[in-house]
């Protein structure tokens, strides 16, 4: 049906997409990525390749490794990469410099953070509370951290956390954004409730960093971890990071005190003495190729405001939900993603009985999202490179696939 | 002085070098590496760049990540890389397939191996014995593993290990080759002594894998770890590996049970159930760029016999020690490396009062070794790309630098 001119809200989705794209202040960033004709809505699993990364990695491999070899540990800044790149991530998650080190996987960093938090919490606190809806690895690692520190593990729905805290609670591990539903949890109020109970708050930022403001320092988060291959576009399996709030650093006691976290790593002392600051979150020799690919990928963020990214992210998910309601037959899908902006990350999850088959068909038609067992279609919206025309096309193809 | 013709042993070092290079069956491998005019004797710290790696990494970045993106987890074999590459390392350390996974740093793998070993050892065994001369990170991590499992840590010189074992010993962590002196420890007899005491043997192969036969299966080693950036030439900070002997795999209980080690990683179950086999040594998402650089680097080993590598390694270090005794003024250096072949790895360590200054000068003259605090000149000999003329030149430059 034809819509009245000048009323963007009621115009055809394709016309609205064109208007929204024309007004998008981040639209120019798309050309900084390698993209093709597909609509890539899986950046919440693996971010697209930033265009400058291949040449940088080639230089790291051919010149830094091939020619300078061992000298690159100093001359190419390899040795200090974990803290240098941590300081590049810091402004994206609201952290002052000197609190983040990059390295190891998210799982390994969850382990460091949780054991470290239990030790910081001190005697008499022997319970770890974990998000019952967490991405599984966090729960598995939390169980191991609890077992090794003599704590009890309590899985609790995030909304129930404040009521579940008590004098035994040492640490609480929560996801900022739920990997399955895309629900954004209330980091400021949950952190405050955890502190009121005398416990430490450990946040997993995998699905929020690079998509929305986090405010680690402002909200007094104690420890945090995150991956870098989703909204930070660091590449497949790029190293994760660990945030240790400045106030805790002198007492942070890592369960993985490798030589890279030693105060004098080349002193080769048989006795361990931790380095000051966030450095004590380091473990072994950093994986330089993956780490420097991440560093190159972060250049895209220069001059980009996380608030602008958040505004566009919400506009993208709003528009997608609108388009879905217009294109998809009633009752064919159910959104698991909260309608309120305050509760929404940067993805939309749609429950759909035949989700596995549907996603396969979408991918064949050039709309790349992913399927999460058993019945979830997951679409991630990376504001740096997804546009509104992409969103309209994705919803249109989905509607057609579902018989609309 | 002139030497009798036909007596290679007594000929001039440069003539002997030419003879030895001419007879070197591995000499052809040198062209598979990117090398320059320098003599690179630091491959025991960072292996040289294999010539085929840059193009492979470029393909991984541009095509696998840039074009296939998320599809590469299946289509480019990313997901199975840790165990596939583990099986490439296996023959180099005498392991049958299915016992090695690649990933994480050596330090993290030491932690998995030691905590796993203590759990395998069972009740009543609450002592971890660690090589008192170990590379420091192994000792630091062993202390953490002991603390978290309620064990006592006992540092013991490797030669004293058999007499130090008792009914409380759960696990013993030893280095196959000492990082400082280049001493090769007797893996078969020490492993047998550890087993006689009912404990588990955990070996660190960082300085032996790729330089000499290890024989993990043949000697019944329980667990082992190693890095891949020394004699395996995997690149700066390339991922380490964990060996879990087949006999222990069903009971191996990792302290880092990340989702990659789950029996059904995409089942997203909140309950952990370990995968069968060596897979349970995996943790989080593997760092694909570093890992696939390693995979490309391992191609150099196709058709290469570790026994030939060992024979050349001993010939190189023998020749270096001969040249040093000829070129370097008496008493100016003292070899810390054992003269007996059975006790020698693939490096020569020379004690020298002003070692720091001397190494700086050697490097300026194109002879790249390294300095280990406080007084050690360390020279590593990678048989795949170091030749005998290199060795002669290195000793000659050293002799000149030391006033010979």
Terminal-residue CA separation of chain A: 15 Å
What is the CATH architecture term of the largest domain in chain A? 3-Layer(aba) Sandwich
Read across the widest sheet of chain A, the strand sequence of neighbours is 2-8-7-6-5-3-4
Low-confidence stretches of chain A: 1-9
Structural class label of chain A:
alpha/beta
- What pattern of helices and strands is seen along the backbone of chain A? HEHHHEHEHEHEHEEEHHHEEHEEEH
Count interface residues per chain for the largest interface.
Answer: A-B, 80 and 80 residues
- Give a short account of the largest sheet of chain A: 7 strands, mixed
Write down the overall geometry of chain A.
Answer: globular
The amount of helix of chain A comes to: 25-40%
For the residues shown, what is the average pLDDT of chain A? 95
Number of domains of chain A: 2
CATH class of the largest domain in chain A: Alpha Beta
Strand content of chain A: 5-15%
CATH-wise, what's the superfamily of the largest domain in chain A?
Type I PLP-dependent aspartate aminotransferase-like (Major domain)
Number of helices of chain A: 13
**What is the gyration radius of chain A calculated from CA atoms?**
22 Å
